[in-house]
Write a structure and sequence with these properties.
Largest sheet: 16 strands, parallel
Helix content: 25-40%
Number of helices: 30
Strand order of the largest sheet: 10-11-12-13-14-15-16-17-18-20-23-24-25-26-27-28
Low-confidence stretches: 14-19, 376-384, 727-739, 887-924
Distance between the termini: 118 Å
Structural class: alpha/beta
Mean pLDDT: 81
Oligomer: single chain
Shape: globular
């Protein structure tokens, strides 16, 4: 019996092995089903994850590596499982007839053995999703932002030197210094842009304009924005804590910090910049300044002086600005031009300014006179006065009359780098009486616009655009020169006083102002005074900013010749000093964007007041009576976005009594007040800006041909516009083809007008610049061609040719802007949100080629569903598209719906000059 035991053992082992294999065969179908179910669940989770990833990527985020690897693993797993399921189904179908035995036992065994492992792998892959906290992270900060540059002349040598030092690991701080206008900023921009090339190993390049006054807070805020430090680690922190946050970010990076226009030493360690001598990443700081002392005080390891241009380079630049037409107008002019160019002493800014000023001198006599002016101009101001101001002031002396010169000097009252609203500036000039005597405010506006154009032509003013705002700006050197001139070459330093962000102004400083002619305070306040100050010569006083909550007692008592008082933008100013009512010489009073609740009745004494501006004053109570009606000299009255809390009709009645009123900006909130305005030929013809809000039963709006800005909101019955023509007749949305009835209209905003079907009357507004329409549920077409009585040729020539920005938001029935495509040659931006029926863009590819278009904003789904005339249009316009998340209601992007401030509008809307002939129109 001893042989039986081994036999039984072998048999048991054979049975166990066989049973295990039989189990694989028997459970094949069930395991295939389990795998299929597990894979379906994994695919559902995969779809959820990919949708989250795509949504985050639309927000300019980047998927994490773990999520990316997981997605790839799922895709690979899906391919493997698909193959296994196909093989399994084939094995199940190919069993021996009438049995459960597979035809291919070996293959079925391998498959059955693999299924449990694959099921476990699928389940494990599914479980990894539970550990994903974020599927995407913000994109990395851009290495460098390109700076705009014109063609550069003569900076090759200093640029190569700076770039060589940047590659030298032993040099951390580089100072670039030189006189104003020599090209330091241009050189720094060229250095910045050279980092766009990949031939370096820096992590980030940071550009900051420091300017003056130099404040740690401003520099830290600029760094915070660039480094994207979150609010939780920044708000309500001290300077030291903010410096620590900046330091913690920068210490891990190899950075280049470019600081432009430093006027006094800046403590980089207090800002949060790591000490470069010990920073292991070999970072760099490069800064520009006008003073070699600043280079030394900031311990620049290398200082580079930017010299003026060599003679050949100077002449090339000068001739470029003078122009070939002028140079060729007489054989003697090229030689004379060399004399003028030499007087510029190679300073690029002077060459540009003087060259452009000489561009109109077409005779030798003109050149000889200007040469004498340039050579004989005195310069006594230390430093800048000895080298730069004589040349810069030549452009000033070349201005044709004293009015333009005074207007230019007036621009120096704004802080450095201030974005000056053109309309605000012109209104200040009007209040000062700088523009001469005219019959109407509009004529003075026209004159002001011409002066601005002249100052821009000779480079004494610069124009710019921030986001959607057009503004003017003085170069800091030009501004310094203007203040020097205003102070009579430095002899009367307190004649023009500009205080910007100086904090608290002490009483002993105020006493020094007794000789001042113009004083402007920006983000500053005055301490309480023991006795009222005396300002016997002051004609202008500005106080703007959050710091000014009140004025010292009696501050305005001894301002007997004050003409302009601008207290706008003082949000915390709630009470107006009563003594302002005794400023009998006052011609301009601006209280916009203040929290003043009640105007003192004493303002009725301001018999010489010409301009009264009360925009964006949400706390203002009804004006005292009598006040407005007795301001006998009033010509300009503005109460825009300041809903009147009294009876609008009383306000209009008071305005009707004013003999000289001719420029109005009104905010009306009732149908009866709107009707009163429409029925007054006088008031309507002088209304320049009109906001109609919540006039629910008003179905027809009557406009003056001189209207420039129209806002209509929550007027649910509004359907159409009627024009009050000069001869007194009325036309109902169908106008004679000769002329344009709304020639001056440049800004239209229509919102929440549920019965509005079209805006065909806009055909008669050829100078329209900004158009925004939102939440008008019945609007189907902006311009209905059939109702216009214009041909396609007429429409293509005039319609929307000046339009800069177009916004169409939440218009569910809107199909098109116009049946025919327009060229939109001036368009910079179009926004289309919540307009599902718009299937075609309202313009052709020429719009994308006109170099003005900047962006098209809309939902990705809408963009993907657009119909295109041809593939070229899509290819050209696609780079301009910027997606947004959804079609949720957006506020008017130029000016928020509930905070439409006059100051913002001034930056946006520049009305065309009203001359008799269309060809003489000028635009800023």
């Amino acid at each position: 019996m001893d042989f039986v035991t081994p036999i039984m053992d072998v048999a048991a082992r054979l049975w166990a092995c066989t049973a295990k294999r039989v189990t694989y065969f028997r459970r094949l179908s069930r395991n295939l089903k389990t795998l299929r179910t597990a894979m379906d669940e994994l695919k559902s989770v995969y779809k959820d994850v990919t949708e989250r990833v795509e949504s985050e990527e639309k927000l300019q985020k980047k998927r994490t590596r773990s999520v990316e690897n997981w997605i790839r693993s799922v895709e690979a797993m899906e391919r493997e499982v698909r193959q296994i399921l196909e093989e399994g189904n084939e094995e199940v179908q190919n069993k021996c007839s009438g049995t459960c035995c597979p035809r291919d036992p070996c293959g079925s065994y391998k498959l059955g053995k693999a299924l449990p492992r694959k099921i476990r792998a699928v389940v494990a892959l599914r479980s990894k999703v539970d550990h994903f906290q974020d599927v995407a992270v913000p994109l990395p900060i851009p290495l460098v932002i390109e700076r705009p540059l014109e063609k550069i002349v003569g900076l090759d040598s200093p640029f190569l030197e700076v770039w060589r030092l940047l590659r030298n690991e032993q040099v951390g701080t580089i100072g670039i210094y030189g006189m104003g206008g020599v090209g330091k900023t241009t050189l720094l921009k060229k250095v910045n842009n050279n980092f766009l090339k990949p031939s370096h190993d820096f992590d980030i390049v940071i550009w900051i304009v420091v300017s003056k006054p130099t404040t740690l807070e401003r520099v830290q805020e600029a760094l915070r924005n660039k480094l994207e430090i979150p609010d939780g680690r920044w708000k309500n922190r001290s300077e030291d804590e903010k410096a620590a946050e900046i330091f913690s970010v920068l210490k891990t990076k190899k950075f280049v910090l470019l600081l432009d226009d430093i006027w006094e030493p800046l403590d980089l360690l207090k800002v949060g910049i790591p000490l470069l001598s010990t920073h292991r990443n070999k970072s760099k700081v490069v800064f520009t300044t006008r003073s070699a002392d600043v280079c030394r005080d900031m311990e620049a390891q290398k200082s580079i002086k930017v010299e003026c241009l060599a003679w050949e380079e100077s002449l090339t630049l000068f001739w470029t600005k003078v122009g070939e037409n002028t140079l060729n107008s007489h054989p003697d002019i090229p030689k004379l031009s060399e004399i003028v160019a030499r007087e510029c002493k190679g300073l690029p800014l002077a060459l540009i300014i003087v060259g452009r000023a000489m561009a109109g001198a077409r005779t030798p006599q003109d050149w000889e006179k200007k040469i004498q002016m340039l050579k004989n101009y005195p310069a006594k101001f230390p430093g800048m006065g000895d080298s730069l101001f004589p040349v810069l002031a030549f452009s000033y002396d070349s201005l044709p009359d004293e009015a333009i010169k005074s207007c230019f000097l007036y621009c120096s009252l704004f802080p450095e780098d201030y974005e000056i609203s053109p309309q605000h500036l012109i209104e200040l000039w009007i209040g000062e009486g700088l523009l001469g005597e005219y019959d109407s405010i509009q004529e003075e506006r026209n004159q002001g616009e011409e002066i601005i154009e002249r100052l821009k032509d000779v480079c004494l003013l610069e124009s710019g655009r921030s986001q959607k705002q057009e503004y003017l700006k003085m170069h800091d050197v030009i501004r310094d020169m203007a203040l020097w001139l205003a102070s009579e070459h430095g002899k009367k330093e307190n004649k023009f006083l500009v205080k910007d962000q100086v904090g608290l102004i002490r009483a002993h400083e105020v006493k020094k102002w007794n000789e001042a002619q113009r004083i402007t305070l920006w983000e500053s306040r005055i301490e309480e005074l023991r006795e009222p100050p005396c300002f016997p010569n002051i004609e202008t006083f500005f106080a703007s900013g959050k710091c000014m909550k009140s004025f010292p007692s009696g501050f305005f008592v001894y301002m007997h010749v004050l003409r302009v008082l601008d207290l706008s933008n003082n949000y915390e100013l709630v009470e107006l000093p009563v003594e302002i009512g005794n400023l009998v010489t006052l011609q301009y009073l601006n209280l916009s964007k203040t929290s003043v609740e009640n105007l003192p009745v004493e303002l009725k004494n301001l018999k010489n007041l010409k301009c009264l501006i009360l925009d964006n004053m949400n706390s203002l109570q009804p004006l005292p009576s009598p006040m407005l009606s007795v301001l006998s000299s009033l010509q300009l009255f503005s109460m825009f976005n300041s809903p009147y809390k009294g009876d609008d009709r009383t306000l209009l009645e008071d305005l009707e009594q004013l003999e000289y009123i001719n420029d109005l900006s009104l905010d009306l909130t009732t149908v009866s007040s709107a009707q009163a305005l429409f029925n007054s030929h006088k008031l309507q013809s002088f209304t320049r800006r009109l906001r109609l809000f919540n006039c629910r039963c008003m179905n027809l709006v009557r406009l003056s041909p001189y209207i420039e800005m129209l806002h209509i909101s929550f007027c649910h019955a509004f359907k159409d516009v009627q024009i009050s023509l000069e001869m007194g007749g009325l036309q109902y949305s169908k106008f004679p083809r000769q002329g344009h009835c709304l020639y001056y209209l440049c800004h239209v905003y229509i919102s929440w007008c549920s019965k509005l079907l079209s805006l065909t009357w806009l055909i008669h507004a050829p100078n329209l610049k900004f158009l925004s329409i939102d939440d008008c549920g019945s609007l189907e077409e902006v311009v209905e061609v059939e109702k216009s009585q214009f041909s396609a040729v007429d429409l293509n020539f005039n319609l929307f040719s000046r339009l800069i920005s177009l916004n169409l938001i939440n218009l569910p029935k809107l199909r098109s802007i116009c049946r025919w495509n327009q060229s939109f040659p001036s368009l910079r931006e179009i926004t289309v949100l919540g307009c599902p029926r718009i299937k075609k863009l309202p313009f052709d590819l020429n719009t994308g080629m006109n170099k003005n278009l900047e962006k098209i904003i809309g939902e990705q789904e809408w963009w993907d569903g657009l119909e295109w005339e041809d593939k070229d249009s899509m290819l050209i316009l696609t780079p301009y598209f910027r997606t947004t998340q959804s079609s949720k209601r957006l506020e008017f992007p130029f000016v928020p719906l509930q905070i439409r401030s006059f100051g913002v509008y001034n930056n946006l809307i520049l009305a065309p000059t009203k001359h008799r002939f269309q060809d003489s129109f000028k635009f800023l």
